[in-house]
């Protein structure tokens, strides 16, 4: 697997997880072209706009070590959208 494939794999994995947990396929939009957190925010906004979707709240899914950066990037690039912060419970 080359590095570019890892980005697509991550997006596909999150999509499959959502499907396995009851999110209907028709409710999932998958952005697979970005290579950075900022790019993901920008391209996701474009994807939503192209479908006429103007969200007021979004769920930001990210690896635990990247959560702070992802949240900050969303707040900077999409201040009109609420992105609640959720942190996994400590296991130790």
Describe this structure in words.
The structure is a single chain. By secondary structure, the protein is mainly α. It has one domain (3-77). Helix content is 47%, strand content 0%. The protein has three helices and no strands. It has helices at residues 3-20, 37-50, 67-77. The longest helix is centred in the N-terminal third of the chain and has 18 residues, at 3-20. The mean pLDDT is 79. Residues 9-81 form the DUF218 domain. This is DUF218 domain-containing protein. One of its GO terms (cellular component) is plasma membrane. It holds the Pfam family DUF218.
The arrangement of helices and strands along the chain is: HHH
The N- to C-terminal Cα distance equals 33 Å
How many strand units? 0
The biggest beta sheet, please? Answer: none
Q: Beta fraction of the residues? A: under 5%
Helix content: 40-55%
Mean of residue pLDDT values: 79
Number of helices: 3
Spans of at least 5 consecutive residues whose pLDDT stays below 50 are none
Count of structural domains:
1
Q: What's the overall geometry? A: globular
Helix/strand class: mainly alpha
Radius of gyration: 14 Å
Protein name: DUF218 domain-containing protein
Domain DUF218: 9-81
Organism: Virgisporangium ochraceum
Pfam families: DUF218 (PF02698)
């Amino acid at each position: 697997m080359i590095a570019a494939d890892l980005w697509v794999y991550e997006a596909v994995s999150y999509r499959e997880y959502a499907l396995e947990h009851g999110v209907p396929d028709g409710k999932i939009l998958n952005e697979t072209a970005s290579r950075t957190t900022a790019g993901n925010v920008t391209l996701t906004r474009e994807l939503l706009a192209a479908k006429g979707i103007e969200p007021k709240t979004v769920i930001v899914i990210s690896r635990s070590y990247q959560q702070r950066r992802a949240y900050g990037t969303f707040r900077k690039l999409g201040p009109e959208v609420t992105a609640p912060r959720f942190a996994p419970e400590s296991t130790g």
